[in-house]
From TrEMBL, chains A, B:
<dbReference type="InterPro" id="IPR029062">
    <property type="entry name" value="Class_I_gatase-like"/>
</dbReference>
<dbReference type="InterPro" id="IPR002818">
    <property type="entry name" value="DJ-1/PfpI"/>
</dbReference>
<dbReference type="InterPro" id="IPR052158">
    <property type="entry name" value="INH-QAR"/>
</dbReference>
<feature type="domain" description="DJ-1/PfpI">
    <location>
        <begin position="8"/>
        <end position="166"/>
    </location>
</feature>
<dbReference type="Pfam" id="PF01965">
    <property type="entry name" value="DJ-1_PfpI"/>
</dbReference>
<protein>
    <submittedName>
        <fullName>DJ-1/PfpI family protein</fullName>
    </submittedName>
</protein>
Length: 199, 199
């Protein structure tokens, strides 16, 4: 199972590392291209000021999708038109990943209903308030359920991405990427050092 | 000592996370703006396909500078015109950081001569060959000497950036950023899990 193209949903106020951690991991695979997408097809700027051009996508076309978090998720999670667009994109996927508060957007589509998922622990109360039909996990670095991988905050997206690489391409490929990134992988999804932040 | 603006040198073939890890850390400071710069002022694309607009800078204007690594450093380290431009930028700084093979570019300016520095361990032989008047450290997550902070490969740039935040703003500020990033900081510069990669 190869990820030839990974679509990454961008919006103003995305969190830089939510996007760029996974880009670093998947971009190191031999044949994986990363595409940035939005309903508008314009430039989107992260909370830290990084501006990225996006491709305008109406009809879904990406089988692998990643939804980052960030302050920009707050208005979008209650924007019905946006969530309708996102739902169409996610329904089309074979696999869909979220980082941080990206799971709030995914939860708003109702496609996570009755499934287990996680999110940023400092924003956990807000995220879980978006949809209480999700089995929200307060202690998890990432969660896989059905076709969804949802991760905890920001840096957890790197750990989750390495797990996806390991699941799809094998542990050896993940190890090669780890070494070249000089990254210390937390490879245990149940080890969540930030779970204690939950009130 | 506040970093009001951090200039980040971009070139084609920069490594995505070398740049975006530090952007995430410094971008979370209350009053720090990040600017992407180059001698040409055009768009620069990372090895993973991330395209970023840069500001054309001729006369140096940034007191704080970060130089990332990546495949793009290979031709630039022997490009005399580029290294002359870079040397002018670095001479102007109060502090200059490098990530990964960014230290090869810095070493090529001769401004690291007789100082201690480190770099990516998988690329160590090439980096050290650029200038053997540097006290290259084969086992270090990052090194501070004089006004320079040089880090090991890719992810090490995040650890180094957190140290810079701690040095400039205090440990409490670094801790706040760590929690919001859900990042497990390797705060010990001498702990280098990738030193063993050195032949």
């Amino acid at each position: 199972m190869n990820i030839e193209t990974l679509g990454i949903v961008l919006f103003d106020g995305f969190e830089t590392l939510d996007v760029m951690g996974p880009v670093e991991v998947f971009g190191r695979l031999p044949d994986c291209k990363v595409k940035f997408i939005s309903p508008e097809g314009n430039k989107k700027t992260s909370s830290q000021g990084v501006a990225i051009e996006t491709e305008k996508v109406t009809n879904p076309q990406y089988k692998y999708l990643l939804i980052p978090g960030g302050q920009g998720t707050r208005p979008l999670a209650i924007d019905k038109e946006y969530i309708y667009w996102l739902k169409q994109q996610v329904e089309y996927t074979s696999y869909c990943m979220t980082v941080c508060t990206g799971s709030a957007l995914l939860a708003a589509t109702n496609l996570l209903n009755d499934l287990s998922a996680t999110s940023n622990k400092l924003a956990f109360e807000w995220v879980t308030s978006i949809n209480n039909n999700v089995n929200w996990q307060p202690k998890a670095r990432w969660v896989k359920d059905d076709k969804f991988y949802t991760s905890s905050g920001v840096s957890a997206g790197i750990d989750m991405s390495l797990q996806v690489v390991s699941d799809f391409y094998g542990l050896q490929q993940a190890s090669t990427i780890i070494k070249s990134m000089e990254y210390v992988w937390n490879d245990d999804a149940s080890h969540d050092p930030f779970a204690v932040n939950l009130a």
